[in-house]
Amino acid sequence: MSMHASAQRIGGYRHVVKVRQHRLNCDENRETGGDDAAPSPQELLAASLASCTAVTIEMYAARKGWELHGVEVECEYTPADRGCPTKFEVTLRLPSDLTDEQVQRLKVIATKCPVHRTLDGEVMFDERVERIQLAV
Questions:
Q1: What's the CA gap between 92 and 41, in Å, rounded?
Q2: How far apart are CA 110 and CA 105, in angstroms?
Q3: pLDDT for 81-114, tens place per residue?
Q4: Regarding beta strands 14-19 and 6-11, do their DSSP bridges make them parallel or antiparallel, or are they unpaired?
Q5: Cα 85–88–93 angle (5° rounding)?
Q6: Alpha carbon of 71 to those of 22, 67, 78, 107: distances in Å?
Q7: How high is the pLDDT of residue 136?
Q8: Angle value at C-alpha 47, between 120 and 117, nearest 5 degrees
Q9: Are 12 and 35 in contact (CB under 8 A)?
Q10: pTM metric for this prediction
Q11: At residue 83, what are phi and psi to the nearest 5 degrees?
């Protein structure tokens, strides 16, 4: 299955991102020259990991018949810098009434979400340029 997204400039560093019939904006913060009108692309990457992790553990719990109320996943993301790898810190906030076994299983399942596997695996890029006449 292939995913598709596109980004089209609105103005400054702000872009509208199109995914299927959905639209969302991204922008850079003021410190990097943007208007801070929306999350940055890097913040959207962290959001993607957090949301995918949450959905994955919720789907697993539903298949097991476990009630999960108030699940929260937080992702702290530090991009790679010279000599340092990219770092993701993921915090699962789970109901206190889960057993230790349930918590341990959900912790393992969290690492199996598709975004986590993508970021953890080998990534290849096939980049090309298409020259087009832009509408004014």
A1: 23
A2: 9
A3: 888 888 999 999 999 999 999 999 999 999 999 9
A4: antiparallel
A5: 160
A6: 25, 10, 23, 13
A7: 67
A8: 20
A9: yes
A10: 0.89
A11: 80, 0
What is residue 106's DSSP assignment? Answer: H
**Cα 42 versus chain centre, distance:** 9
Query: What number of other Cβ atoms are within 10 A of residue 17's Cβ?
Result: 16
In this structure, is the dihedral angle defined by the CA atoms of residues 120, 124, 129 and 135, taken in order, positive or negative? negative
* DSSP for 6-75, written as a single string: EEEEEETTEEEEEETTEEEEE---GGGTS---S--HHHHHHHHHHHHHHHHHHHHHHHHT----S-EEEE
Q: Which of 99, 97, 98, 77 is closest to 88 using CA atoms?
A: 77
User: Are 92 and 110 in contact, with CB atoms under 8 Å apart?
Assistant: yes
pLDDT tens digits for range 1-41: 889 999 999 999 999 999 999 999 999 999 999 999 999 99
Q: Three-state SS for 86? A: coil
Q: Which amino acid is at 45?
A: L
CB neighbours of 23 closer than 8 A, spacing ≥ 6?
Answer: 16, 17
Give me 70's structure tokens.
């108030």
